Amino acid sequence: MEVGGNPRVIVLFDGYSKTGENFTLANCTCTLIKGPPHVIVDTMTAWDGEKIRKALAENHLNCDSIDFVVCTHGHSDHIGCNYLFPKAVHIVGFCISSGDKYFEHDFTSGQEYVVSDKVTVIPTPGHTMQDVSVIVRSCNGVVAITGDLFEKEEDLRDDRIWKSAGSDNEELQVKNRKKILEMADFVVPGHGPLFKIDKQEV
Amino acid sequence: MEVGGNPRVIVLFDGYSKTGENFTLANCTCTLIKGPPHVIVDTMTAWDGEKIRKALAENHLNCDSIDFVVCTHGHSDHIGCNYLFPKAVHIVGFCISSGDKYFEHDFTSGQEYVVSDKVTVIPTPGHTMQDVSVIVRSCNGVVAITGDLFEKEEDLRDDRIWKSAGSDNEELQVKNRKKILEMADFVVPGHGPLFKIDKQEV
Fold it and tell me: What is the ipTM of this complex?
């Protein structure tokens, strides 16, 4: 699924979660914002390096072309391949770093981080206390790449879906879900395909 | 620094944090528990792959020898090199996985995860809501590898140190710090050298 002109939002892999007997099969949605600057959002599990490399090549990029890695939060299915991107600035939840240099930025007070004139990172805690979302102002509308703030489109009508995926603060998550539904036209959720927001329903 | 016979606790790299003008230089303590099973606790930043490979080789191991990767929490300076260990089970905070298979385990209710008869992983939230610590019963005493539940030894006498390093729930962190100080003889903190607990002071 692609949205926009420049920057283009390209969902490289739709996330999923399927419950088995004593386990869940799960991986996150992995999204490329093709700029420049080029941004990858959520790097899946540590076992997905080859898939990511191949998907970037299909988009005429490689790991060293990526300027920013953003992990919406620090769960293992969202940070697994950060290792592939030593030339990028890494934003993992509320931490911004390059090597062992950690830059000051006050996400806790609500401050947005500006990647470019069309791409910002904003704090959206709830699922964890340090979740962020990436907001892209594309020519087709505003796209919010939210990680597990939204599990999948179905949880718009059934709160049990995102709650059962784990929430460190449900009240805060409700508040930030509402904020995203008001500001965005499309949502890229953590474990399902991109969906359009029906503004009649918000 | 080494502690114990079998399993042996070997601190591969002491963590640090030093404040600059608009940034902090920081990396986590990285610890090997040499078994078998072999466990690595906290894999530093995504830029530290070669350092870790070399340190394992000096201990007659390689990445494929590691049976468990434990990240005490999902901050970027603790998960950066998980990618190097595709043959291990990964425990990142409260999530336990191999590939896209996520195993059920109720850390939220306090349940410990048994790695071996001498090594367990227990929930110790506070710094994030999903922090874990690794408890090793070595022949020299109980070693607790705690990540940022303790920033460094100095914060035993100055709470401002661990609080300023970020805490999602200070009250919970105080409670879990106390629990560790009571149960352990040694602490491997997130950003400083291993220290011995003075039981007179606890």
Answer: 0.94
Over residues B125-149, the pLDDT tens digits come to 999 999 999 999 998 899 999 999 9
Instruction: Report the distance separating Cα B197 and Cα B191, nearest Å.
Output: 17
> Cβ–Cβ of A82/B77 closer than 8 Å?
no
How many CB atoms lie under 10 A from the CB of residue A88? 22
List of domains in chain B: 2-96+106-196 (3.60.15.10)
Contact at CB, A168 and B49, closer than 8 angstroms: no
Whether A71 and B76 lie within 8 Å, measured CB to CB: yes
Reported as a single tens digit per residue, the pLDDT across A14-48 is: 999 998 888 999 999 999 999 999 999 999 999 99
Residues with Cβ within 8 Å of residue B166, at least 6 apart in sequence: A94, B127, B148
Q: How far is B8 from chain A (nearest CA, A)?
A: 27
Quote the minimal CA–CA distance from B94 to chain A in Å. 9
Q: How far from the centroid of its chain's Cα atoms is residue B159's Cα?
A: 20
Angle (CA) B53 B138 B11, round 5°: 30
Cα separation of A76 and A118, whole Å? 28
Q: Is B164 helix (H, G, I), strand (E, B) or coil?
A: helix
The 10s digit of each residue's pLDDT in A34-85 is 999 999 999 999 999 999 999 999 999 999 999 999 999 999 999 999 999 9
